[in-house]
Amino acid sequence: MEFFQVIFRTTFFYFFVLLCYRLMGKREIGQLGVIDLIVSILIAELIAISIENIEDSIFLTIAPIIVLVVLEIGLAFISIKSRKIRTFFDGKPSLIICNGKINYNEMVKQRYSMDNLLLSLRQKEIKNVDDVEYAFLEPNGKLSIFKYNLFKTKSAYPMPLILDGSIQKKALKYIHKNLSWLEYNLNVKGVRVEDIFYCFYKNKKLFIIKKNEVC
């Protein structure tokens, strides 16, 4: 009898968790944020306990899983609406290599070793750090790499200056501009910061996507 109960619970939770993850949205394992990871671990623990303790009601496991799913969906929705909350939970990309030079201070801050950096470069078939113009350590732990072009001429900084109405001060710093310069150029274009969804700098020009232009 216990054998069939274990089989039933395992099969039930398989399809139940599959439904829950469909509701929470499509994410690859490597793209899981802090909240997603916590929810995944807790769900796995709850199910393992439920399968082992067959004398307990199955609803004692279903209820907390539903609560976790609702929390995850709710926080994901709030994070989409608020960049501050999204940054609090997920963090920001960290610039590890800039113009072919390693940012050691940022590596220490992120506890990212030289071995990890070289491993990530080798996985991208890059032999020398000098071949990399920019490299960002993403919140999910992956390294995004932008190699130099054939002639090693300087290209546009890949991070936005304004994102969802929020000025990215570090991005301004890396293109050697300041707030006054940005405000002046926005005034010339007749655009307010809070109305901008995405703004980047390329070929000495600002490219702007307004919030009302986003579908």
What does the model show?
- With 215 residues, the protein is of the alpha+beta class.
- It has helices spanning 2-24, 34-52, 59-81, 83-90, 104-109, 114-123, 169-174, 179-189, and strands at 94-98, 101-102, 132-137, 143-147, 162-163, 166-167, 196-202, 205-210.
- Strands 2-1-3-4 form a four-stranded antiparallel β-sheet.
- β1 (94-98) and β2 form a beta hairpin.
- The longest helix is centred in the N-terminal third of the chain and has 23 residues, at 2-24.
- The chain is elongated and about 75 Å long.
- The N and C termini lie far apart (55 Å).
Order of helices and strands: HHHHEEHHEEEEHHEE
User: Tally the helices: what do you get?
Assistant: 8
Number of β-strand runs:
8
The value of Rg in angstroms is: 23 Å
Largest sheet: 4 strands, antiparallel
* Poorly predicted runs of 5 or more residues: none
- Major sheet: arrangement of strands: 2-1-3-4
